[in-house]
Amino acid sequence: MVEWINSDGLTGYDDAVRFMEARAAAIAEGRAEEAVWLVEHPPLYTAGTSARSEDLTDPDRFPVHVSKRGGQYTYHGPGQRVAYVMLDVGRRGRDVRRFVHELETWVIATLDAFNVKGEIRDGRVGVWVARGDKPLSASGQPQEDKIAAIGIRLRKWVSFHGVSINVEPDLEHFSGIVPCGITEHGVTSLVDLGLPVTMDDLDVALRDRFDRVFGEIT
User: Fold this and answer.
1) Looking at the chain, which runs of residues are DSSP E strands?
2) Is the pLDDT at 44 greater than 80, yes or no?
3) 3-state secondary structure of 172
4) In 21, 30, 41, 61, which residue has its Cα 20 to 30 A from 12's Cα atom?
5) Measuring CA to CA, which residue among 79, 54, 85 is closest to residue 190?
6) pLDDT tens, residue by residue, 147-163
């Protein structure tokens, strides 16, 4: 069984990390069920293990949290759904690459519930949306915007951290960093794409698609 936890209001980042680390340890020791925790954070930046100092372009704008998750700089804030996944990857095949692919598949399937085609790209972490409504790029290719970020950490084969999907955050807040180290593409959200999706709508789709992608532990 996977426990689903949905926190109202804004959850402090350090509080979230403490909870995840304790829950992951309990799962590894067989004292707790797996969990997916849905939260929103106040505006903040996080620096993953590959973050470069030059990608924090406005260090005084929001609090900056050094994170042990993989990846570079990312933004969290109101209007963005963060889904923290505390899952026993050891009992789910012990294949980290497959697990990350399942997270990507989960996000893409969730977006598909709203007729949004999310895609992954080699060399670019996260989930992307082609913007046919925007002019072609300087190279003549369709522009692409990032709609979801993925960053995880494993300890004793239990995951924590997870994915974030932009529902209706203030997209200007991303301008204080180079999101995930990528300068030539933008950031979007479901509402920015013209879809009147609520956080509750997204949560329903996340839970429904989770069961389809991950299923039960074998």
Assistant:
1) 2-6, 34-39, 44-47, 64-66, 73-76, 80-86, 119-121, 124-131, 143-155, 158-166, 186-187
2) yes
3) helix
4) 30
5) 79
6) 999 999 999 999 999 99
**Which listed residue (103, 180, 202, 206) is catalytic?**
180
Per-position DSSP letters for 87-107, written without gaps between them? -BTTTTTS-HHHHHHHHHHHH
Q: Which tops the pLDDT comparison, 88 or 142?
A: 88
Active site residue 180: yes
Q: Give me the mean pLDDT over the 81-106 stretch.
A: 95
> What is the structure's pLDDT at 139?
76
Average pLDDT value over all residues in the chain: 93
Pairing of β 158-166 and β 186-187: unpaired
**Count of helices and strands (H, E) across the chain:** 3, 11
63 vs 209: CA distance, rounded Å: 33
124: which 2 tokens?
């670019």
Identify the three-state secondary structure at position 36. strand
Query: How many whole angstroms separate alpha carbon 180 and alpha carbon 183?
Result: 9
